[in-house]
C-alpha cells in the first residue's frame, strides 16, 4: 500500500507512480501528480513542449 505525498490518494501498487527517495525516506507521487509535477518542471524549461 502506498499513498501519494501530494494528494494523499492510496493504491495497492505504485504502478506508474514516481518514487523520490529523500532524506526523509521514499516519497510517492501518483500518476496524476507525477504528470502535474513533471509538467511544472518541464514547463519552466520549455513551455512550448506542453
Ligand atoms: Zn497524487
Major β-sheet, in short?
2 strands, antiparallel
Q: Please tally the helical runs, counting DSSP H or I stretches of 4 or more residues.
A: 1
Note the overall shape: globular
Strand order of the largest sheet: 1-2
Bound compounds:
zinc ion
How many runs of DSSP E, i.e. beta strands? 4
- Unreliable segments of 5+ consecutive residues: none
| Cα-atom radius of gyration | 12 Å
**Helix content, binned percent:** 25-40%
Terminal residue distance: 32 Å
As for the number of domains, it is 1
- What's the SSE pattern? EEEEH
Residue-averaged pLDDT = 84
Work out the strand percent.
Answer: 25-35%
Which class of secondary structure composition applies to the elements? Answer: alpha+beta
Protein name: Small CPxCG-related zinc finger protein
